[in-house]
Amino acid sequence: MRVVIGEDSALFREGLARLLADAGHEIVGKAADATALVATVHAQRPDLAIIDIRMPPDHTDDGARAARQLRDCHPDLGIVLLSQHLETRHSVELVTRGHFGYLLKDRVFDVDDFLDAIRRVAAGGSALDPEAVAALITRRRDDPLAALTSREREVLALMAEGRTNKGIARRLWLTDRTVETHVSSIMAKLGLADTDEDHRRVLAVLAWLGQQAPG
Amino acid sequence: MSGPRRVALATCLVTGVVLAVTVVLAVRAPVAGALINLGIALSVAPASAVLGLVIARRRPRNVVGPLLGLVGLTTALNAGRDVAWWYLAERHPDELPSLNWLAALADQSAVWIFVAVALLLLYFPDGRVPGPRWRWIPPTLIVCAALDHIGTSFDPMEFRAPLQHIPRPWAPLPVPLQAVGLAVFVLELVLVLVCAASLIVRFRRSDEMRRAQIKWLALAGMAIPLYPLACLVEILLWGRPLWVSAAIGLAGLIGIPVATAVAMLRHDLYDIDKALAATVTYGLVSATLVGIYAVTSVIGGVLLGRESTVAAAVATAVCAVALSPLRTRLQRGVDRRLYPIRRAALAAVDALSRDARSGDTRPEQLESTLRTALRDPGLRVGFQVPGTEGYVDVAGGRVDPAGAVPVELGGREIGVIRPGSTGVRPELLRQVGGAAATLVEVVRLRLEVAQALREVESSRARLVQAGYSERRKLERDLHDGAQQRLASLGMAFRLAQRHLDDGSVDVNAVLDQGVAELGTALAELRRIAHGLRPGRLDDGLGPALTELVRTVPIKIDLDVRTDQLPDDVATTAYYVVSEALANAVKHATAGRIALSVSRSDGQLLISVSDDGRGGAALSHRSSIADRVAALGGTLRVHSPLGAGTMVEAVLPCAS
Q1: Distance from CA of B511 to the nearest CA of A (A)
Q2: What is the pLDDT of residues B443-468, one digit of tens each?
Q3: Alpha-carbon distance B644 to B591, whole Å?
Q4: Of B83, B97, B163, B216, which one is least surrounded by beta carbons within 10 A?
């Protein structure tokens, strides 16, 4: 697929480009700041944009703001935000709208997982970093999640990361049917409508987690 | 119960009874003459009687209390007598002729009011006559008054209203006796005046307290000479006494008991001089205005015809225009005589000190107090805050000491008072400054504390801020440097790993490049760590400075003589030197720098001086100044233009 990279550190940008090219993706543009990134995406119409949250000109959350802007113009563009540190301010809201991923930069080292995540996002699905999910799931007190068994909790976390039933089954060494049972049990306990469509279900879970998250 | 107190109580009770009877009679025969007398009785007698009792309770051995009560009683009796005549004239007119003997006897009973007032003046304020030679006056006065009273009963003149139609009961006295009666009357008058004059004699001999007491009485007593004067003026101008004289008379009648009570009990409560001056001023203003009005309306009446409203309007307008300048002029004149500005200012300073001590006001009010007291709205008070130069006001604004008078305490100059107009004499300011010195000292110390507190607060805020920005910078450095380098290294290894099997990777080259990258990342981390705290400081301040000096491209004479120092002192010293050197290199265009660090008397002395162009100012807001201040040290920058810069820091360091 056609990818644009927005990343100000040349070292990381080039490394990432080589990795993606090696995996068979086409790098159609590289930008070192938010403004150039938006222009490049407008010009190239890629399938996916991989964006560092912190970029010039402000070195704060320029990347996230650019992502929001791009999302408004290109509803079907896949966007993956990369961040050095965990921050859920932007991620949850964007993730719930689909075609979106939020990952820590370290995830790039798990090359296969990373490539899988960007493929999912480009196809309209979601990818949320396990640490972000953990923060969403643990950061609460009067906990409806307490009703879940530990296995259901694991399944919920993987769902929130954006994985399909099949992906979850593979991860946990379970059969697809078992995962389905867990999923419908979770949905019932959280009071969410179950659906067969994987990524719709993920969005429901994320939206629910996002609403529950304090602050 | 003491004698005077018993008398005062009895007087008070009798006065109450007389007043009660008077009220009943006046209510049953409410004619104008009765009501006027009732009004006078009620406005004077109760106050005198009650205040007399109060004074007698507080000063049980002093006859002033009963004498004041006596003034009330005589006034009440006199008014009651007239009300009774009006009542009889209204209700039982037939009985009046048969009571003409009583009318004759009581005709001149008003004389006793004068006797009471005269005795009050004579015995005021200590309850004794001014001296042994005055002892014969009270009995003589009473005998004279009694003779006068009896003598006037034979007066052939027609009775006053409402008895004007009643015939006199007795034939007039033979001429020789009349002559004696006149002599007695004159003697009586002289004695009353002598009693009043006794106050002047007392005033001359007295201390400040007695004088203040006497002044209080004089304040009310002014009505006594003013009343006949005002009556006379009004009779001359309009043919009969009008409201001005009535007001003065009433003010005197009410004022005397009140003033007596204040003088006896609380003479220190108010500033009598000020009250006296104000009363005199307004009395004179009123008198002059009445005069102007009278003259203007007489002239207007001649020109425009009598009863002309235009004339009245013109007279009113002239008075209105004259009021303000007249008041100012007269006040100045009166104040000069009665209430000198010096005394006013000293009294104001005293009052401020007292109120400040009791916490009722803040000593910072000094400037506005002096402005009012010295009548100089442009006056400024400047305070010399310890540790600073020049003078500031309480808001921290500069006060230019040019033309000002210094305020000194213990030989040190602690402030200045600068007049806003030339009318205030420097000698006066010096006196006022002397009186206000403690206040000035208090204010300047308070200013110093407030300023130090502000300094500490802003310094603390800056330290916190500096800490935050250091962290931000550190995070940025790590993020942009080592982190990115390590992340890209990870990706490179992953990439190589994916192609290990197809043999397209030169493992040796990949590893070489990886190690080189790791080396660079390590160097970056080391640089950052050094920024956190110079590593060489572990070996001591000397070696760390030697290394620092090596990085500076200017010749430096290094003289460091210290042994082991506490860690915070060494670190702060290092940064002081580091910043001073950086400034010298950047701004001073110096050719040579002398750096010395030495330790003596539990202090570390750091001095960095260059031969550059000077004119530098190390901001008090700098982080170095804050670091030094945080250790309780001091930082000085001496940098005259063209003569180099010297930075000196003193850090306390107990060994």
Answers
A1: 16
A2: 999 999 998 898 888 888 888 888 88
A3: 10
A4: B97
pTM of the model: 0.46
Structure-token pair, residue A147: 């009703």
The span from the CA of B217 to the CA of B259, in Å, is 5
Find out whether B284 and B330 touch, Cβ atoms under 8 Å: yes
Residue-averaged pLDDT of chain B: 83
For the domain made up of A2-128, the CATH class stated in words is: alpha beta
Residue B201 forms contact with A (CB below 8 Å)? no
A141's CB contacts (< 8 A; 6+ apart) are none
Asked whether the predicted pLDDT for residue A215 surpasses 50, the reply is no
Partners of B67 in the β-ladder: none
Q: Do domains A2-128 and A134-212 have the same CATH topology?
A: yes
Q: Is B469 on the interface with A (CB under 8 A)?
A: no
Q: Selecting from 3.40.50.1970, 3.60.9.10, 3.30.70.2740, 3.40.50.2300, what CATH number does the domain A134-212 have?
A: 3.40.50.2300
Q: Are B625 and B571 in contact (CB under 8 A)?
A: no
Task: Say if the Cβ atoms of B491 and A15 lie within 8 Å.
Answer: yes
CA distance B632 to chain A (A): 38
Measured at the CA of B512, the angle between CA B510 and CA B514, to 5 degrees, comes to: 70
Instruction: Identify the closest residue of chain B to A56 by CA–CA distance.
Output: B480
Distances, alpha carbon A77 to alpha carbons A34, A50, A125, B180, B193, in Å: 16, 11, 11, 133, 115
- Token reading at B68: 């004041």
Q: Is B390 left (phi over 0), alpha (psi -120 to 50) or beta?
A: left
The rounded distance, in Å, linking the Cα atoms of B545 and B537 is 8
Q: Which tokens sit at B419?
A: 């007049």
> b/e map of B315-350 (b: 16 or more CB within 10 Å)?
beebbeebeeebbeebbeebbeebbebeebbbbbbe
Q: Classify the phi-psi angles of B589: left when phi > 0, otherwise alpha if psi is within -120 to 50, otherwise beta.
A: left
- Domain spans, chain A: 2-128, 134-212
Name the fold adopted by B538-652: Heat Shock Protein 90 (3.30.565)
Q: Does B494 touch chain A (CB under 8 A)?
A: yes
CA-angle at B319, arms to B225 and B300, nearest 5°: 100
| Chain B hits for A16, Cβ within 8 Å | 491
**B492–A15 C-beta distance less than 8 A:** yes
Task: Give the SS3 label for residue B407.
Answer: strand
Q: For B106-130, what is each residue's pLDDT tens digit? A: 888 888 888 888 898 888 888 888 8
Contact A19/B490, CB-based, under 8 Å? no
Domain with CATH 3.30.565.10 in chain B: 538-652
